[in-house]
Amino acid sequence: MAGAKICGVDEAGRGPLCGPVVAAAVILDPARPIEGLADSKKLTARARERLAVLIRQQALAWSVAEATVEEIDRLNILQASLLAMQRAISALSITPDEVWVDGNRCPDISLPVRAIVGGDALEPAISAASILAKTARDAQMIELDRLYPQYGLAQHKGYPTSAHLDAIHRHGVADFYRKSFAPVRRLLASP
Asked: How far is residue 63's CA from residue 85's CA, in Å, rounded to a whole number?
């Protein structure tokens, strides 16, 4: 589809025990390519931050959206991720011709959409979405860490590390935890 406006979509935060799942949608400008786009997990935090600024400045359109902890607990993490993706796509200022999603599942939208396994490493628009989603979610974890330093969220970003599980055990399950996730559910059930 030469000249088609392709929207890349990806999410961040499916695995952590707390916080929202964040999705981003990006339509890159073919006239303003961005060097260095890659799967956000393969980039350093500094590189992600630098690229996120360029993406927001140079993309034809971009948006970031989320599904809340309550939605994750009510729907499950997969459905909440797809909901965040729907929200990100619908918030774009330009309607894309086609949507390419990282992974093997597509959100239910009225546009042509396809899933691309490993797309965040293969397609620049998906890489850009991966970077925006990851930097937005990391910023949320750093902010939560300022409010709740006892959990160490700035270091592990909410993932179930042994230090994080120890902190939850010591300090309890705060409101921003996903109560449907097994490690949190077990802690809530233990006397």
From this structure: 10
Euclidean distance between CA atoms 2 and 178, whole angstroms: 43
Residue 123 in 3-state DSSP? coil
Edge to edge, the sheet with strand 113-116 lists: 61-67, 21-27, 6-12, 98-102, 113-116
| CA–CA gap between residue 17 and residue 142 (Å, rounded) | 15
**Is 60 in a helix, a strand, or coil?**
coil
Going from N- to C-terminal start, the domains of the chain cover 6-189
Domain 6-189 listed as CATH 3.30.420.10: yes
| pLDDT recorded at residue 2 | 61
pLDDT digits (tens, 9 = 90+) for 92-105: 999 999 999 999 99
